[in-house]
Amino acid sequence: MAISNKLSLAIVLVVGLTIAQLSSATLSPDLEKQLKNPNIDANKPLSDLINPVNPTVNNVVNQPINNAVNQPTTNPVTPPVNKAVNQPTTNPVTTPVNNAVNNLANILHEDPSEFLIPQNAARAKVSVPPFVWNETLAEFARSYAQERANDCKLQHSHSPGKGENIARAPGVLSPAKAVEMWVSEEVNYDYASNTCKKVCGHYTQVVWKGSTSIGCARSNCQGRGTFVTCNYYPPGNYIGRKPY
Ligand SMILES: *[C@@H]1O[C@H](CO)[C@@H](O)[C@H](O)[C@H]1NC(C)=O
User: Fold this and answer.
1) Residue 166 β-bridge partners
2) pTM score of the predicted model
3) Residue 168 pLDDT more than 50?
4) How far apart are CA 173 and CA 180, in angstroms?
């Protein structure tokens, strides 16, 4: 089996652990080694998810994810607290004052509807109300996508209080295609038993009824592909709860 296939399998297994609600987060040394390998095959589209911080299950939920990927070397920048939360989607983003956030040279600008329409279609299919755009989350997503543009690693922000789906592919990865990758996991999700064959956590986050707003961004990794991230508030994927 090629390394890339093993890695994909490893990611599937890690996410599967959380979805299967196993209390053991132990990974084999071999699996851990592969998951820590930053040289993810750039020729294969990949996506991964982070589970929300939940005081009651935090250790269990986050343990496999923390094993799987390296923590960011610097903390993501917190958006200024005085920003209006509900900016109309037609208005441009207010320029953040922080320099780290201000440098968004690799961010691909697009209409929020490109992320909203396909995810809201998946929600409508299971009678879940649509997401609204959350500019605070979008600012965070842009800041993090800019940070990841340097290496294009399929790595989470590990920032508390929000859900996060990420994806990466060589060349151009459109918002619609990234969302399609996440929503395609619908076939893996069994509502009756609230379990998942292989990976379905990206899908369950998209259709999580308690999550009401999103902010997403894409960055151009300069020859390494495209990095896509969506953040969700309030976060979803709580263990033991159904998405809707
Ligand atoms: C937007 O997200 C932030 C968290 O980043 C949250 O505090 C705020 O309440 C959200 N706004 C809406 C309208 O959901």
Assistant:
1) 48, 229
2) 0.67
3) yes
4) 11
